[in-house]
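Let us work through a complete example step by step.
Step 1: write down the sequence.
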Amino acid sequence: MAKQGITPVNNADSMLRILILSMFFSVEVTYVIGELRKRRELQLFLRVEVIPEADDVYRFFSRTDEDHFIAMINGLIRNLSRPSRKRKEKTIIIDGSAITLDIKLFKKRLTKKELEKND
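Step 2: predict the structure and record it as tokens.
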């Protein structure tokens, strides 16, 4: 990620993992961060040592354009799929059709109380 000018790499990596998990399960980033704080096994699964604040994640991805986002995803996949010296390199095909990407990170979210007041 540093090759694409994305710094700090450790924070960007953990934020990207959090965002991918939230997109995969179609939940908000704040819910994922709350679950990470509650469950140590989830932190170990995602390999997230430092849990960022939700505002930091939203702010980081609001400054990221599409090219940098795609470069981060490709870098993460390449990092996870590095072949050992014994194995030949494999091609990974990922079906991302079920993952929806909502770029509007700072949209206004309504609470249940506000929804009850509205029709």
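Step 3: interpret the result. The first helix runs from residue 9 to 24.
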